[in-house]
Amino acid sequence: MSIDAKPPNFSPYIHTLTLTMTTTLPIRGTVYGVLLNAQAEWHSAQALMNDAPYKAAPIAPVLYVKTANTWTSCEGHIAVPSDVPEVEVGATLGVVMGAHGKAKAYVLLNDVSVPHTVAQQGFYRPPVKYKNLDGFLGVGAQAVNADAIGNPNALQLEVRINGVLQQTVDLSAMRRHAIALIDEVNEFMTLRDNDVLMLGLDICTQGDHTGHRPLAHVGDVIEISAPQAPALGVMRHTLVSAPALEMAV
Questions:
Q1: For the chain, how are helix, strand and coil distributed in percent, rounded to 5?
Q2: More confident residue, 249 or 91
Q3: Mean pLDDT, residues 238-243
Q4: What is the pLDDT of residue 21?
Q5: In Å, how far from its chain's centre is CA 179?
Q6: pTM for the full predicted model
Q7: What is the tally of structural domains in the chain?
Q8: Residue 20 lies in a domain
Q9: How far apart are CA 13 and CA 70, in angstroms?
Q10: Is the pLDDT of residue 3 over 60?
Q11: Tens digit of pLDDT for each residue in 55-75?
Q12: For residue 229, is it within any domain?
């Protein structure tokens, strides 16, 4: 997993964030996202997989890190730079790891991102520029014991923007389900106690957002829930304006 990409300068708008070190979050370890784990997104990117420099599809899961500066507590505000007209909503479920590489809990996550294409992102370089702006990971209110959830890939996540349903994420449509994903990641790195591994993000296959994730704008209220697992609660965040970063996208 390459980590040589340089993040943008976040300092112009750190003061706008509502998340502080005193905020209680249900996660503590390193948070890992996984690229292209949804069947629909994988198929949409297949035409580019044989391009240089790798000229082959990824074999192992391709991970990236959502650093701690991105975490925003439930009901918090997510600051969007004024030169970013819209952001992608990345609804997913995070696996909170326990001892011996086993899941101990699950938590709702919103992997917010500056819109970008697979060609811009690449398959092996972590998309730090687009995903690791301050506050760009919404975190659910609570982590729920794994035994209470059962099979996480049996869940569907609903994404609402300003109360309107925009996407239903079917976690059964992931290429690697939770157990297989954890096992394959543990083959090349160790997931430690309290680390969080996302199950993957999906794209919309119908409606106005077909071919990408739902798009949201400053002032919008984003809600993500799992109707089959009400104990996870409703994760809610509001997008607010922040000074421009002057980032090329």
A1: 20, 30, 50
A2: 91
A3: 97
A4: 36
A5: 19
A6: 0.86
A7: 1
A8: no
A9: 13
A10: no
A11: 878 888 989 999 999 999 999
A12: yes
- Tell me the C-alpha distance between 101 and 195, whole Å: 10
DSSP assignment of 125-165 equals S--HHHH-STT-EEE-S--EEHHHH--GGG-EEEEEETTEE
C-alpha 110/C-alpha 71 separation (Å) is: 10
Residue 190 identity:
T
| 196-206 residue pLDDT tens | 999 999 987 77
- Is the bond preceding residue 227 a cis peptide, omega within 30 degrees? no
DSSP letter at 188 equals T
CATH code (residue 79): 3.90.850.10
47 vs 150: CA distance, rounded Å: 36
Q: What pLDDT score was predicted for residue 15?
A: 32
Query: What is the token pair recorded at 170?
Result: 């079917």
Q: Which two tokens stand for residue 86?
A: 């819209």
Which two tokens mark 88? 């992608």
Residue ranges making up the domain that contains 182: 28-242
Tokens of residue 124, six digits: 């092996």
DSSP state of 232: G
Task: Give a yes or no: residue 15 inside a domain.
Answer: no
Detail the DSSP E strand segments found in 182-248: 196-198, 215-216, 221-225, 235-242
Whole-angstrom distance, CA of residue 117 vs CA of residue 122: 8
- In 3D space, the residue among 10, 5, 199 whose CA is nearest the CA of residue 109 turns out to be 199
Work out whether the CA dihedral 157, 174, 34, 27 comes out positive or negative: positive
Question: CA end-to-end span of the chain, whole Å?
Answer: 23
Closest among 73, 149, 84 to 109, alpha carbons compared = 73
* 11 inside domain: no
Distance of CA 29 to the CA centre of its chain: 15
